[in-house]
Design a protein that fits this description.
Low-confidence stretches: none
Structural class: alpha/beta
Number of helices: 9
Distance between the termini: 22 Å
Helix content: 25-40%
Strand content: 5-15%
Order of helices and strands: HHEHEHHHEHHEH
Shape: globular
């Protein structure tokens, strides 16, 4: 995705963070500190986030920043959490396997609804590939009999966000969705035009 963005004329600046060691509030504080590096920028800055990263963008940009914000793409974001966490977060091994933030994303958890929604164009991409060997969560969801549309980890309905500009789905599992050619095509399209392109046939 970064390479495709670069080839399309964008200048991606990836932010790496310790996603397993800190709770969401601490990660949001780290993200806000990172954003301060862009204070005074004149050109709008776009944001692309995957899964937890999309939630950090949502929370971090919910407060004023010192630079103009362009468009935001959320890829497989658990905006309303995930049933898998709601069903299994009482198990001690879940925290060790997924890290601290995972326990905060039970489906319908009230704090998710209280998160701000940035007042900027937001596009949401959800995956629909329910089962994939590279996604262990997809096997857990199958064992739990999850009949909803999901990407193996997050339900499609849970990715949606009130006020989003556009929404689309990709036939990909949560683990690999950022590498899918259709995801990459749609991210670039939204950053350029503020809308997703029509889906490819087949």
């Amino acid at each position: 995705l970064q390479g495709a963005l670069r080839r399309s004329g964008f200048r991606p600046l990836p932010w790496r963070y310790p996603s397993r060691r800190h709770d969401v509030a601490a990660l949001v504080r780290r993200f806000r500190a990172r954003l301060s590096a862009f204070d005074g920028a004149e050109a709008p800055i776009h944001f692309v986030g995957f899964s937890l990263g999309a939630i950090l963008i949502r929370a971090g940009l919910g407060e004023p920043v010192g630079f103009p914000i362009g468009r935001i793409v959320m890829i497989a974001p658990p905006n309303d959490g995930a049933n898998l966490v709601a069903r299994l977060r009482h198990l001690a091994w879940l925290r060790h396997l997924y890290g601290r933030p995972a326990l905060e994303f039970a489906r319908g958890d009230p704090w998710l609804g209280r998160l701000p929604v940035p007042a900027h164009p937001i596009g949401v991409i959800a995956g629909t590939r329910r089962l994939h060997p590279a996604n262990p969560n997809s096997w857990l969801n199958a064992l739990l009999g999850n009949a909803e549309a999901h990407d193996g980890t997050v339900e499609v309905a849970s990715t949606k966000l009130p006020g989003m500009r556009d929404f689309t789905t990709v036939d990909a599992t949560h683990t690999l969705i950022t590498r899918h050619p259709e995801t990459i095509r749609q991210v670039i399209g939204f950053l350029r035009h503020g809308r997703f392109a029509p889906g490819l046939p087949g």
